[in-house]
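Kindly go through the following sequence and its backbone structure tokens. Advise at your convenience whether the structure tokens fit the sequence:

___
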Amino acid sequence: MTTHDRYVSPVPRETWDVPVSGDARFTWEYDEGRARLLALYQKGKDKQWDAATRIDWSLEVNPYNVLGLTDESCPIYGSPTFEKLGRRDKDLMYQHLSSWQFSQFLHGEQGAMICAARIVESVPDLDAKFYASTQTMDEARHAETYSRFLQEKIQLVYPINPNLQTLLASTLSDSRWDMPYLGMQVLIEGLALAAFGLLRDTTTNELPKQILAYVMQDEARHVAFGRMALKDAYAELSSKERDEREEFVVEACYLMRDRLRGEEVWSTLGFPVKECLEHADQSPFQQMFRSLLFTRIVPIVKDIGLWGEKVQKAYADMGVLDMAGVDLGAMMKADEDMAETLDRERAALAARKREVDATIAAGAAG
């Protein structure tokens, strides 16, 4: 069975070709580099891992309750449509919601891999090329991981969300070398990092927790890379250049916010789409979820200097302006620490199991 056989609706079998423009830039300066970026590059090399061995794929996952969440977390919980659903229909809905969510993670990771490769090609500085090359491998691993999780555990895949596709096309087709940084490293990756974190911290199931924690350990470095590189570059922007990038930020953030409404799921299941969207928009859980998704983006946008009136007005409209004061460094460190903690806990469990097995074997032999 191919991935195409698992899609909820047909997707083109030919590739999606995005025309790109801009120069591939070579540099002949090999000796000097920014110490912070080179340190991040070293960390990127040191932290490579294998998804086939670090993740325990033997763990069982119920495809009808992938994250182990309660009904209250459902976007349409309490709606007339939800109240009419029997247990079997709810199970199917939860499978589709999880598939839709993790499918967008998968498509976003492929987009991140391609954007990272574009950064290697187009960024003028060798230290940034070095780091982006490690990120390209990271993103390949993430796409591999989410693909396996979807196909083996959820057994259902959704096409790419139109808003995510639009943002990827805008990011990749722009000839300016900094746009893959801004579109992917700051905006798409920042939103994904927050979404991963919310699911990591709420799921009661071990396999998705492992996947999300280990992917987040990499993503924390990626967002730091974009933040570091753009803060240096954007200090030199003209007013016109800054205005253009702030306009892009505003449009991209509205696109990302609106792609989180699950419209494709309600349509696929034959639910009344308008009613579901209206209820999801008013759901306290979903309102909290959408607002928290910007905890990683807003402070970075401010830090890199794209903090004009239009950006602040948009964030006020979304109800996320106060997130500009979030301690991003502390959050990123916590993301990295969580993955290391999981590794230690799993190693301790494995060691105890070996001790028990050895004791049992010794008893049987005696």
